[in-house]
Amino acid sequence: MGWILVLLAALSEFVGVIGLKKYSEKKNAINALLYYGGFGLAFFLLYNSFKFLQVSTAYAVWIGVGTAGAVIINMIFFGESKSTGRIVSLCLIVFGVVGLKALS
């Protein structure tokens, strides 16, 4: 159950990232709801995952998945650089998250 909550928290963070980008471009109620709602739900779900998982592991995985997801979202939808260095760094983040999950 804990890992499901961490995954849902990461997915909610993706919504928050999209909302943050959109809200920085145009301040309206829908973008604010995506921004605040996405991050708010992400923190709520992450907090509840701590009942099942160690805080350090759950938080590190959430940060890793959220960071990787934010980079991918920004590369695909918002035209950020897709340089080899960024992609290699992204792979290292994913490798670290998988390692933490495998060892916990």
Q: What does it look like?
A:
There is one protein chain. It contains 4 helices and no strands. By secondary structure, the protein is an all-alpha fold. Helix 1 runs antiparallel to helix 2 and helix 1 runs parallel beside helix 3. The longest helix is centred in the first third of the chain and has 24 residues. The chain is flat and about 40 Å long.
Could you tell me the strand content as a percent range? Answer: under 5%
Question: Any idea what the shape is?
Answer: flat
Largest sheet: none
Task: Output the helix-strand order.
Answer: HHHH
How does the helix and strand content classify structurally?
A: mainly alpha
Note the total helix count: 4
Give the averaged pLDDT, no decimals: 92
**Helix share of residues?**
over 70%
What distance separates the N and C termini? 14 Å
What are the low-pLDDT stretches, counting only 5+ consecutive residues below 50?
none
Q: How many beta-strand segments?
A: 0
Gyration radius over CA:
14 Å
Please summarize what this structure is.
It is built from four helices and no strands. It has 104 residues and is mainly alpha-helical.
Secondary-structure blueprint:
Layout: H1 2-25, H2 29-49, H3 55-77, H4 84-103
